[in-house]
Amino acid sequence: MAEDKHYNPTYLHHKKKGYGDTLRELVFGMEDGMVSTMGAITGIAVGSGDHFIVVLSGFVIIAVESISMGVGSYLSNKSEDEMEKRILAEEQEEILNTPKEEQEELVELLVTDGWSRALSVRMADEAVQKPALMLREMAYRELHIIPHKEGHPIKNGLVMFGSYIAGGIVPLVPYLVFANPVQTIPISVGVTVLGLFILGVYTTRFSLRTWWKGGLEMLVLASLAGVVGYLVGHYAQVFFGI
User: What residue ranges are annotated as transmembrane (predicted)?
Assistant: First the structure.
């Protein structure tokens, strides 16, 4: 059998698509875990200088925020799935009750997409005779919804939960190793910066960006929160004496 020279197994659309369902949650969870935890414990370390308070606060932040983010991801994904199901049900009702109007609308949508009017009319004539096909066409062309797309709210919630924990642990680990919280700040920040850069590099596996651009983008944008946390802690100590 001749080898298919047009088939490239490294292309994303030739691979299993499981990663695509959770990539957003994975990146969002790890980035937010690293940045939020680093910003918070850096501010606490500057403001209090107490090792126990910093470590305890870090664990509390990670525990509370990971649960909150996981639940939030689950609820938002579930709400989106339910909204799309309602929209599709309403579209299906319109197809059954006003088929002529929907047929005319499909013709215009096909023409807008670049099909000739003659062919668009023939395609709409056939689609209107097949309600399931008509619904798929209207969902795709008018509603921009993929019918029968399987949502994974529980899976996404769990990925968000676990990713936030994994990211949150990164800036906290140095405080578990070293006793002086103020002196540990640059180590924690450095480890987090490295973690953010690596995460940014990882995301380029699924895009056309170069690895260093992805790493720098994640690093620069995400590090802003750490700077804010440091400044809040510093000025709280200056103005309020805490």
Answer: 26-46, 52-76, 158-178, 184-204, 216-236
Among 171, 180, 169, 149, which residue's Cα sits nearest to residue 82?
Answer: 149
Q: Rounded CA gap, 175 and 62, in Å?
A: 14
What does the chain come to in residues? 242
pTM, to two decimals: 0.85
Q: How confident is the model at residue 3 (pLDDT cuts 50, 70, 90)?
A: low
Same domain (yes/no): 127, 157: no
Rounded distance between C-alpha atoms, residue 187 and residue 194, angstroms: 11
Q: What does the pLDDT look like over 124-148, one tens digit per residue?
A: 999 999 999 999 999 999 999 988 7
Residue 123 lies in a domain: yes
Asked if residue 170 and residue 115 are part of one domain, the reply reads no
- Whether 68 and 167 map to the same domain: the answer is yes
- The residue range of the domain holding 231 is 18-81+151-235
Separation between Cα atoms, residue 112 and residue 207, nearest integer Å:
29
